Structures are given as C-alpha cells and as structure tokens.
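Quick one, T. Sequence first:
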Amino acid sequence: MSGAQYRAFISYSHRDAVFAARLHRRLEGYVLPKRLGAGRRLTPIFKDREELPAAHDLSAQVRAALAVSECLIVVCSPDAAASPWVGREIELYRELHPDRPILAALIRGEPAEAFPPTLADGSVEPLAADFRKSADGERLALLKLVAGIAGVGVDQLVQRDAQRRLRGVMAVTGAAVAGMLAMGTMTAFALEARAEAERQRAEAEKLVEFMLTDLRQELKGVGRLPVMSSVNRRALDYFHAQDLDQLPDEALEQRARLLLAIGEDDTAQNQLAAASAQFDEAWRVTGRLLAKTPDNPDRLFAHAQSAYWRGFVHYKRKETAAARRDFESYRMLADRLRRVEPGSVRGLRELAYADGNLCTLANEQEHDLDQALAACQRALGGMRKAQALRPLDRALALDMSTRWAWLADVHTSRKDFAAARASRLAQAEILKTLLAADPLNAELRDNWGVCHRGLALIAYRSGDFAVARQNLQIARTVFRELSALDPANARWRDQAAFSDKAIRMLESPSHRKGQQ
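Structure tokens:
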C-alpha cells in the first residue's frame, strides 16, 4: 500500500497491555506461505505504548503512526470500550483512511459491552477475530487477523496451519513412543532399587496419561487413526511388562482406559472381534475396581464406559438382545453416577448418552418407535440440563447436536418429515457454529457429513429428490476429504461410497423416468 510504513497499528487499553504485547509478538513472528508472494512477514506492526518516544505532543506522534499504517487492529474489551484514547485512535484512523480496514479482536466480554462506541456505530466491517475460548479461540482468531492484514483468504492460512499442527503432533508422537520404548526397556531390566523402580513407573504412567488425553485429543482432531492405534499399543506394551497383581488400583484404572481407547480405534476400523476382546477385558477390570468402592464416582464412570462399548459392539453386530443388556447396564451405572454426583455435568451427560443409545437401538433394531421417541426426548432434555450448567462448553454443544440427530432419525422412522427436518436443521446450526471456530476438526466434519446424509434421507422420503441429491453431494465431499486424510478409517470410506452410490441412483435414467 503506497506510503505505508506499518503493516498494522494495534490500539488497546492499557489494562489489555499483556494481551497486546503477546499479539504483537505473534503477528510479527508469523510467516506467510511462500505461494502468497513477497512480504511474507507482517513487519513492522505499531504498538503505540512501546513505539512512541517521550514527547510533549503525543497526539502528533499517534497521528503520524496512524497515517502510515495499512490497517488498524482494535483490541476489544470492556476496558477498551471505556477508553477515550482507543476511541480517539479509531476516529482518527477513519478520518485519515476511510477506505482502509479496521479489524476488531474481541478478547473479553460480549461485543455490545466490549466494542468502543466509535467501532459499534454500524460503519465498521464485521468482527474479524474472536479470541475468546467459547468462540474462535486463539489459533483461529490469530489466523483471521493475519488474513485481514495480508489481504488473503483465511481458508488458505487455516489449511497451512492444519499441516503445521499435524507435523507437530507427529513429532510429539515420535517422542512419546520413543519415551515409552525407553520406559519399557527400563522395566525389562527389572531394576532392583525399589525407589528407582517406583520413580520409573510413575514416569511411565505419566507418559501413558499424556497419550490417553492430550495426545489422543490432538490426533483425533487431525484424523490420524493409525497413529492413535500405534501410540496406544506402544503404551499397552508397558503394562504387558508389568506384574498386574502388583500394580496399584490407579495403574489398573489407567490400563482399563487404554484398553477402551484401543477398542474404540479397532471399532473405527471395523475390527469388531479385536475390539470386543479389549472391551471385555476392560469390563472385568473396571467391575473389580468398582466392587471395592461401589460409590466411587470415578469408578462408576469407568465401568459405565466399559458397559457402553460392549453394548456398542453388540449393536454393530446386530446382536440386539445383548446390546440392550449392556445399554441398560450403562444407563443404570450412569443414573447411579448422577445420584452420587448430584448436579454434576458428568452424571447428566452420561445419562443423556445412555438414553440416546436406547433410543437408537429401539428405533433401528427393535422398531419400537414409541419407546425410541421417549428415550430420545429424555436424552435431549438431559443434555439441555447439562449444557445449562456449562453454556460455553463446545463439547456439550456437540453432544446437543448429536441428540438432535438421533431425534431426527426417530421422526423419520415415524414419517413425521417436518419434525425430522427441523431436528436435523437444529443439529446443522450447532455444527455450523462449531466448525466456524475449528474448520478442520475431523470429528466435527464427520458430524457435518452425517447431518447432510440425514437431511438427504428426509428429502428423499419426502419426494424432494433434488434436495436429497444436493445434501448427498455435500456428504460425499466431506467423507472423501476425510478418507484422504486417513485412508485407514473404514467408516469414512463406507460413508463416501454410500453417498456416491446414492447420488448415482438418483441421477440414473431409470430413476428420472420414474419421477416423470
């Protein structure tokens, strides 16, 4: 931009100085992809509290800096809204550059209370970046600001960021697996010093915990199923080298969670026999531990997970009676957890999950639609209660979207297509918000594809074949992209193949002839 000296000018309240300094460092440290051309670094960026020298005429210095800035970034918070200094900087920038962008970075409060009055007068462009955890979050919000400064599409930056994340996760995975192998080797040496052996075991179990929590969540987010499976089996090698009778209960609980994680990954790859073996062993372990302390909420929760996954394998195999037995057991344990932890999100959520499972079983395999509808309505109501306790929790929002999906399926079976479509659209609205904050999250994209497949079925059953085809095309695109991300995921391959087959059927001459 002609005459510009600064890529951006950051305006902020002094109460937000820590955030502004961090934002300044991250923006100046960001390197744009090579394919976007010259000027790959966003430097320099003006941050007035540090850039201005001591001077009698401070406003003249501000005017000079604003005059040579390509855009204005306003750090928005209730303190910024109350700051006359921030307000004057916005006014001055508009006066100097009515055609240049002003980017809002919301860090605290709602827009109505956080936007300075001069920014909220209706003439500013839409909010560029919402750094709050309940909205865009730090990563996506930063990319939106970078895109605004550089004048490029945010999707280009998001794609590159996802590749960086994947490389980072893979690097951490390699280090974790190497560490686990080292722990296994130390175990094999059977160290005689009791204190040293205890220390090594504690270190190994910390590493297992990392693999089961943070690392697993990152790998799920980028859709790396084979890597998850490899990591989990490496972790299980540690327990194979132990005398299980000598392990404390905490380590046995950890081993059970690891077995469930491995079984979940086996299920995603349609390896149901292997999954069943893992779930049965986890069930035995969590059952023994719960028997020791029947009212321990963590052990109730753990045994409930074992019950669910056993039931899920039976459901997948269409072993309906066995699936109902385990799903009822899961519901009983979830209800006990709710009573042991009154008012907790965890208990309400597990009970809603359990009712949802019974709803799906009654709908798809038992064909008891009255029972299915009642169970799905209980699940939706229970999840609403949980979400009311944590309204900004994104995981609970995703859970709510799933309850709407199951309810839509029951309405479809009952041929109440208007109610089915309304439920699917409620699901889609939640997913749209979540995907805006994390557009490359594989789990959210999976749900988005399933939602559109459900909308296609409703449209097809209603006789609206054009809308059915449109939704199937969206689903096919989603599952093809996910399959390319993780070719080992059998479910994604099957979903893509089903959508493709259904589209071909709708486009076939025989089907078109039947519509005439």
